[in-house]
Design goal:
484 residues; Aminopeptidase; Alpha-Beta Plaits; nine-stranded antiparallel β-sheet; six-stranded mixed β-sheet; 28% strand
C-alpha cells in the first residue's frame, strides 16, 4: 500500500506517525500498540520496560560527547480518543486510520486522527531510530490510558524513571510552552429506568440533533461551543410540557472529555402529532441557531420515522427525571482564573448520555486548577442526583500541575526558541489536564515542560495537524536536545 505521507518532511517522523496510525490504540485497548512499541525496542537492542499498566519505557544511550549527561525523559501517551461520524464505517479495533493530506494539514477520514498524542510517539520513535542526531541519554516514557483518566501515569512506578528533566509532548499550540495545568475527575450518574409497555396506536420516530463542532472539553471549553446533550435537554423539556409522546432511547456524545456533537432521542407518538412536533423542532432550531450563530452556526434538529419494533418505553416519571438531569447537571465554563488572564479555572463537560438495558448513564468530566472548586462541582452533581433518586460514581481523580518559579528546562526552551525564531515564546498554563500533574506528584524534583505542534479540532472527526508546524517543532526539539 502506497504511503500517504511519503516524501513529506520531516519524513522520518511522518513515517512513524503513519505506521502508528495502522495500529488500534483506543483508550483502555492499548495491548497491541504497547506490544508493538516493545518489538520496536527489541529490534534495535534498546533497553525497555513494559509494566502491568502497558506503559512502555525505552532508553537509548547518549551520542558521542553526550554519553555522561543525565537522562532526559520525553513523554507522551500511546492511546487516542476514538470518535467517528455517525455515517462513517470504521472499526477502531482493527481498521487503520485513513490518513489524507489537504494543503498543510493531515486529516483522518470521518474519524479522529490520533495526532493527540500520536505525534509525540512519532517524535520519540524517530529519535530512537536515528543515527545522526546528537542527544543526551534518552528515556522515552509512553503511557497508556491518558484520555480516560490517566490510568497509565497513575500506575507508573517512580523507580522506573531515571530522568530528572521531563519534556511532555502533549501541547497543541506551537510556541506556547505549558508550565501548569488543571486537575480533574469523572462523575457517572446512573438513573434506573422504569419500563412500560407500548400503546398500540403509537409509531416510532427518531429526533436527531447534530451539526455541532464539538471539541476538546479542556482546550476548547472556553470557546463556549454548544453541547448537544444540554441542547437536547432544553428541547425535550419544552416538548414534554407541550405534547404527549414516549421516549424509549437517548444517546448523546461519545467521550466524556469531548464536547458532544450529536444526540439522538427515539420516541413513540401518534402519527397525527407529527406536525405539532415539527413545529416545536422548527422553533428550537431558530432558538439554537440564533444563540450559537457565531460558535455553532450549523445546529440542526430533524425528525424521521423509523421501522424499529418497539415493545417498551420509559415511564413518564423516568423520562421526566432524565430530562431534569440533562438540564441540571453542571456544564460549561463555571469559573475564570483571577490570577491568569483568560484562563478557565473551573469547568465541567456532560460528555456522554447513554441508554442501557435498565439504566441511563450520564458521564461528565470536571476540571479545575483549584481542588476545592473541583469538589464543589462534584457536590452539585451529587445533590442533583440525590434529588432525582439516581446514583453517582466518581472516578479517575488527578491533580493539578503547579507552576514552579525556577526551571532549567524552561530557560533552555526559551533560549533555543528565541535564537531559532527571533521572538519570545509564550509561557502558559492550560485548563486541560496533562499527565504532568500526576508525574510531578510521583517523580520528586523532576523539572518539566510541555510543548507540541499546532493541532486543531482535537477529539473530533475534524481533527487535523499542521505539517509545517510538525517540522518546525521537530527541528526545535533536536536543537533543545543538543543544547542540553
Amino acid at each position: 500500500m502506497e504511503r500517504v505521507l511519503k516524501g513529506i518532511s520531516p519524513e522520518k517522523v511522518l513515517y512513524w506517525f503513519e505506521e502508528l496510525s495502522k495500529i488500534p490504540r483506543c483508550s483502555k485497548e492499548e495491548g497491541k500498540v504497547s506490544d508493538w512499541l516493545v518489538n520496536f525496542a527489541k529490534e534495535r537492542n534498546l533497553e525497555y520496560i513494559q509494566d502491568k499498566a502497558l506503559n512502555v519505557i525505552i532508553r537509548k544511550p547518549g551520542t558521542k560527547g553526550y554519553e555522561n549527561h543525565e537522562f532526559v525523559t520525553l513523554q507522551g501517551h500511546m492511546d487516542m480518543v476514538c470518535e467517528k461520524n455517525l455515517d462513517t464505517e470504521h472499526d477502531f479495533s482493527s481498521d487503520p486510520i485513513k490518513l489524507r493530506v489537504e494543503n498543510d494539514y493531515i486529516y483522518a477520514t470521518g474519524t479522529t486522527l490520533g495526532a493527540d498524542d500520536g505525534i509525540a510517539v512519532a517524535y520519540q520513535l524517530a529519535l530512537l531510530d536515528s543515527e545522526d542526531i546528537p542527544h543526551p541519554p534518552l528515556e522515552m516514557l509512553i503511557t497508556s490510558d491518558e484520555e480516560t483518566g490517566m490510568g497509565g501515569a497513575n500506575n507508573l512506578s517512580p523507580e522506573n524513571i531515571k530522568g530528572k528533566t521531563l519534556i511532555n509532548i502533549d501541547s497543541e499550540e506551537e510556541g506556547v510552552f505549558l508550565v501548569s495545568c488543571a486537575g480533574g475527575m469523572r462523575d457517572k450518574i446512573r438513573l434506573d429506568i422504569d419500563w412500560e409497555e407500548v400503546e398500540d396506536n403509537l409509531l416510532p420516530f427518531k429526533i436527531k440533533l447534530g451539526g455541532l463542532k464539538g471539541g476538546h472539553s479542556g482546550m476548547e471549553i472556553n470557546k463556549q461551543r454548544a453541547n448537544a446533550n444540554k441542547l437536547m435537554g432544553r428541547f425535550l423539556l419544552d416538548a414534554n410540557d407541550t405534547m404527549d409522546f414516549y421516549i424509549y432511547s437517548v444517546d448523546g456524545g461519545a467521550k466524556d472529555n469531548a464536547i458532544p456533537r450529536e444526540f439522538v432521542t427515539k420516541i413513540m407518538m401518534k402519527n397525527k402529532d407529527l406536525d405539532e412536533m415539527e413545529e416545536i423542532i422548527k422553533k428550537w432550531n431558530k432558538i439554537f441557531q440564533k444563540e450559537y450563530r457565531v460558535q455553532d452556526a450549523n445546529i440542526d434538529i430533524t425528525i424521521s420515522k423509523t421501522s424499529e419494533e418497539v415493545k417498551k418505553v420509559f415511564s413518564k416519571k423516568t423520562a421526566s427525571k432524565m430530562v431534569t438531569l440533562l438540564n441540571l447537571i453542571p456544564n460549561g465554563v463555571l469559573g475564570m482564573s483571577s490570577e491568569i488572564d483568560d484562563l478557565v479555572e473551573t469547568s465541567s463537560n456532560l460528555g456522554v448520555v447513554k441508554t442501557h438495558e435498565n439504566s441511563i448513564e450520564f458521564d461528565s468530566a470536571t476540571r479545575s486548577s483549584v481542588e476545592s472548586k473541583k469538589q464543589e462541582v462534584h457536590q452539585t452533581a451529587r445533590l442533583v442526583s440525590e434529588m432525582i433518586g439516581a446514583e453517582i460514581i466518581t472516578s479517575a481523580p488527578y491533580p493539578a500541575w503547579q507552576y514552579q518559579p525556577d526551571s532549567k528546562i524552561r530557560d533552555v526552551f526559551k533560549k533555543v526558541y528565541k535564537e531559532k525564531f527571533s521572538k519570545e515564546p509564550e509561557i502558559a498554563a492550560i485548563h486541560a489536564g496533562l499527565e504532568c500533574g500526576l508525574l510531578s506528584q510521583k517523580l520528586d524534583n523532576v523539572d518539566m515542560i510541555s510543548f507540541g505542534p499546532n493541532m486543531f479540532d482535537v477529539h473530533t472527526p475534524d481533527e487535523h495537524i499542521s505539517i509545517s508546524s510538525i517540522n518546525r517543532m521537530w527541528k526545535f526539539l533536536k536543537d533543545v536536545l543538543k543544547e542540553l
